[in-house]
Design goal:
Length: 242
């Protein structure tokens, strides 16, 4: 059903289904001339966060009717009772309703593994990352004996992150520094995010606790994860065989 428009009977069934979700009192679904869903409007009580209500609607329509609806098309209006009082972060609308914007946080880069290989002639680092159920692999090798292993690990981490990004953004390693924080030590990583509109300087930090290679990767991820919501990503990733 996801590839076709809804018939009037299917539309009625979808609205009835959503209206029976706990916390939702009514539902109206708008469709275009082909029967494709353009908007879903629901009125709910304030028992649940609006974002969670929207996810419930999305999941229910998919599971019960096989209807795919982008959560961004789902608008949630929460009925506020007099006993609950106002919310400074909500936008008041007529008839005693309060509409909350649905915020979606982009999935962050997650650490998978890091390996460092040294020989007489070179040093090589390999890093695996995950993001939104997708995996990517990055590596970096140098025959420069003066280049420290931590910098090679940081570059391998950036190479793995770049597997997720489209061509509109480029990550350039600036510096990796070991610093003292009170009675502890940490790695600080500087990264330049280069895009069409200029360069943005990023910095990440990770306390050193045991595995130094892993701490460098964490500090690099910390730098990039700060702006993850502003990055453009590939729709799919081809996992490279090492």
């Amino acid at each position: 059903m996801s590839d076709k428009g809804l018939t009037s009977e299917q539309l009625s069934a979808a609205q009835d289904l959503v209206s029976r979700i706990r916390g939702i009192s009514s539902c109206h679904i708008s469709v275009n001339g082909d029967g494709a869903i353009t908007e879903v409007h629901v009125v709910a009580t304030s028992e649940k966060a609006p974002k969670l209500i929207a996810r419930d609607v999305e999941s229910c329509l998919k599971a019960e009717l096989g209807v795919d609806v982008d959560y961004k098309k789902i608008g949630v209006v929460v009925v506020e009772s007099a006993a609950q009082g106002g919310d400074a972060g909500a936008e008041a609308i007529p008839n005693g309703l309060v509409e909350f914007p649905i915020e979606e946080y982009a999935p962050r880069f997650m650490f998978g593994s890091v390996n460092l290989f040294s020989s007489k002639s070179s040093v090589r680092a390999e890093v695996e990352l995950e993001r939104d159920s997708m995996e990517a692999f990055g590596s970096h090798e140098s025959g420069n004996a003066e280049l420290t292993p931590v910098r090679i690990i940081a570059q391998a981490t950036l190479n793995a992150i770049s597997e997720f990004l489209d061509d509109s953004s480029r990550l350039c390693l600036v510096e990796v520094r070991r610093v003292e924080l009170g009675d502890r030590e940490a790695f600080v990583v500087g990264v330049d995010l280069v895009g069409d509109r200029g360069t943005k300087c990023l910095a990440g930090c990770s306390i050193i606790s045991g595995n130094e290679s892993q701490s460098v990767a964490y500090a690099t991820l910390d730098a990039v994860n700060r702006v993850i919501g502003k990055l453009e990503f590939k729709s799919s990733i081809e996992y490279k065989i090492r």
